[in-house]
Amino acid sequence: MEIPEDSTDLPTTRSTHSPPPVAELYDFQQGPTVEILAFVDTLGILGINSTCFYPIQAEEAFPMKTAPSREHSTKRLTRRSLLGSLGALGLGASACTAQTPGVQEGQASDSGLKLTLAMIENYDRTGPVLNGTVKLDGIDPIPIKAGPAELFRQVAQEAAYDISEMSTSTYMILKSQGDDRYTGLPVFPSRNFRHGYVFVNDHSGIIRPEDLAGKRIGVPEYQTTAALWQRTFLQDDYDVTAEQIDWFEGGLDEPNAPERFHVDVPSNIRLSRIGEGETLSKLLEDGDLDAVVGPAAPECFGRANHIARLFPDYRQVEQDYYRRTGFFPIMHMVVVRSEVYRANPWVAQSIFQAFQRAKTLGFERLNQTWDLPCALPWIMSDLEEIETIFDGDHWPYGIAENNALLERMTQASYEQGLSKRKLEVQELFAKETWGS
User: Fold this and answer.
1) What are phi and psi of 335, to 5 degrees?
2) Over the stretch 255-303, which tens digit does the pLDDT of each residue have?
3) CB within 8 Å of 263: residues ≥ 6 apart
């Protein structure tokens, strides 16, 4: 169906929440007057229309009111771009032609508690929940596929989703400040060793990790969980503490990156923002920074010959780190809005058990190596090595098997000037999961 740009006759089918007409929510000439998040709250339905084949991505569907990205600050929302981008927002069959009856991927059915579920989509261990293969008992999830940067900004700045993946470091910071918008669950969809993500300028004189003391180090955000772990192993293994370094925050490869949310650090932590139009990658390449740490490689790595990894044999270093500490660093966790949890405390176990089942299915698929489940030619060898090193479940959920690791994280967050107080591990999680 062709929708004229100047038409005001939008589909009128509504959820039981009876939202106001779309025309009242948006000024289609000047852009959004409220966030599209209002649609989730009022329509209770968001996702993929199977006849449009256009998945709704969180970074497209939920532009921020505060600290907008460059893309969001320059795009104008027209009536056609709204419907074209969102496909079907549960607004009725006229939102897309030839709509197939029934529940579509990304939409909720008519039974169970309807809750939005925002996750990074490229995980084998959570895919079965997002695609509906694994059900959440008593819950009809409305899945929203997301990228980490935009997702974590939305979750930090607003209680944007009912269930969400979240930066563990950010969650601990908020918790220590008395922010109780979220209740944590001991589900950890993202883990990563981080020694391989320390990059240095060869002209800076950095040969050993100990040489980082007194240097200028860039980090996309001081609060990220990746940086938390990098500072932790530098302190624990090489006696280099956070206050011995001059830290510079900013966009890794793109300038003017917005903050996830502002964190005030103590005066003993020397932290500055880089200049307008600057990037960490370019500053590292030009020698204005001595090193860069974080969750990803800077663009200059692999192009500029004088940019190198501090740990070129990082795989062996990380395996040794695990053997000594037992830590396979947690990056992200799953949280539920506390308002939802307090009204329905049973959701904690429902969500926890569903993600446990999804993880089992994901790993079973990876082990079907007679026909490669992913495009890694030596995955069988990798799986055998993982079994040898970890001797069991290398990706445990629950509190008990992760208690020592989580204890170190809470201590490090306080030591590094992020958390306002030292958190106890148990207080991070819903009490229904304390025995996990």
Assistant:
1) -125, 155
2) 999 999 999 999 999 999 999 999 999 999 999 999 999 999 999 999 9
3) 173, 222, 223, 418
What pLDDT was estimated at residue 159? 86
**What's the CA gap between 67 and 260, in Å, rounded?**
8
Alpha-carbon span 345 to 429, nearest angstrom: 12
Q: What is the average pLDDT value for the chain, to the nearest integer? A: 81
Residue (of 175, 153, 138) closest to 66 by Cα position: 153
Tokens of 230: 């990098």
The 3-state secondary structure of the chain reads CCCCCCCCCCCCCCCCCCCCCHHHHEECCCEECCCCHHHHHHHCCCCCCCCCCCCCEHHHHCCCCCCCCHHHHHCCCCHHHHHHHHCCCCCCHHHCCCCCCCCCCCCCCCCCEEEEEEEECCCCCCHHHHCCCCCECCEEEEEEEECHHHHHHHHHHCCCCCEEEEEHHHHHHHHHCCCCCEEEEEEEEEECCCHHHEEEEHHHCCCCHHHHCCCEEEECCCCCHHHHHHHHHHHHHHCCCHHHCEEEECCCCCCCCCCCCCCCCCCCCEEEECCCCCCHHHHHHHCCCCEEECCCCCCCCCCCCCEEECCCCHHHHHHHHHHHHCCCCEEEEEEEEHHHHHHCCCHHHHHHHHHHHHHHHHHHHHCCCCCCCCCCCCHHHHHHHHHHHHCCCCCCCCCHHHHHHHHHHHHHHHHCCCCCCCCCHHHHECHHHCCC
Would you say residue 245 has pLDDT above 60? yes
pLDDT at residue 59 tops 70: no
Q: What is the largest CA-CA distance in the chain?
A: 66
Confidence bin at 49 (pLDDT 50/70/90): very low
Amino acid identity at 332: H
Q: State the pairing for strand pair 246-249/270-273.
A: parallel
pLDDT at 30 over 80: no
Calculate what percentage of the chain has a pLDDT beyond 90: 72
pLDDT value at position 133? 95
- Assess contact for 100 and 53: CB atoms under 8 A: no
